[in-house]
Amino acid sequence: MLNKNILYLILLLFLFPFSILKASNQEELFCKGIYWSNKEANYAEWKVIKRISIYKIYFKINELKKIARVSFRKGNAGTVIGMGGWENRTEEKSSLSFTYSLTNKVFKMTSRYSDIKIEGKCEGNIYL
Questions:
Q1: What is the spatial distance between Cα 54 and Cα 73, in angstroms, rounded to a whole number?
Q2: Is 75 helix (H, G, I), strand (E, B) or coil?
Q3: Which DSSP category does 8 fall into?
Q4: Rounded to an integer, what distance in angstroms lies between the CA atom of residue 84 and that of residue 80?
Q5: Which letter does DSSP use for residue 112 in this model?
Q6: Are residues 126 and 100 in contact, defined by beta-carbon separation less than 8 angstroms?
Q7: The pTM is what?
Q8: How far apart are CA 8 and CA 2, in angstroms?
Q9: Contacts (Cβ under 8 Å, ≥6 apart) of 95
Q10: Closest CA to 85 of 69, 67, 73, 72
Q11: CA neighbor of 32 nearest in space, from 124, 96, 121
Q12: Per DSSP, which regions of 51-116 are E strands?
């Protein structure tokens, strides 16, 4: 009985550090900022998460939740540039453009077909 518990403890100690390293390498940004639409400004939070082929951005604006799908690429001078749109196509027709500065961690989004703008500061990492 004691040998079995020691074996489980050793196995747990070997597996636990690897799970911590794997979780810390996840590409994720958590941002807070301002959402402008219809000449009104609202507080917004969003999370940028890397999926298999694209990034998904989960917006929370007041009590409204929206999801955008984006593809990012490297830009000049430490910037990341992205293009995408809203995941739920029943919403407004939209083509979204994104910029993210790796140096000062500022995230900006604009919509081509509406007056929506989002800007804020982020914490986390994106590796391209």
A1: 11
A2: coil
A3: H
A4: 13
A5: S
A6: yes
A7: 0.72
A8: 10
A9: 83, 85, 111, 112, 113
A10: 69
A11: 121
A12: 55-61, 64-74, 79-86, 96-101, 106-111
